[in-house]
Amino acid sequence: MFANRFALGIRPVLRASSNITARKTVLKASLNTVSTTPNAEDEILIAQRKNRPVSPHLDIYQPQMTWYLSGLHRVTGVFLAAGFYGITCSYAAASLLGLNFDATVIYQTITDLPDLVKYAAKATIAFPFAFHFFNGLRHFVWDSGKELYIKGIYRTAYICLGLTAVAGTYLTFLS
């Protein structure tokens, strides 16, 4: 009899009647309804949302290397994509506008820069590229089902950071 009421979350309450032999089961549900307007409903909802906790509450969790590398992987991906699309769109716009923007102009502009600016620009491109490349390989290792335990995750993180340092330095100063 009460199976569907239990499914609805309504609990029946047993009360003793004046006659001890005859007990009645009384369904007690306290529902309050209020007539309101859509604007008032929105205000009530906003007030309720202000009292909700932020989930997950980041102050109680200790930051981990996996958080940082995941965020950095996304940031470097956006940075590299923005650079690629910026150069591609510049070439397209220059050709549509009849401007002289080709590889020789870019090469001449870069060779005229001071060495410090050249190395800073190369490092700005090389380190994000190297990190994104090696972290992508790390994800391929995970996709193959390898290194999916805590020690393996941290081992691959340190390998990724070490290879990024070596490859980024090589691309910046030796290429």
UniProtKB/TrEMBL annotation:
Location relative to the cell: Membrane
One function term, GO molecular function aspect: electron transfer activity
Keyword Membrane in annotation: yes
Signal peptide annotation: none
Keyword field contains Magnesium: no
Membrane-traversing stretches: 75-99, 119-141, 153-173
Protein name: Protein
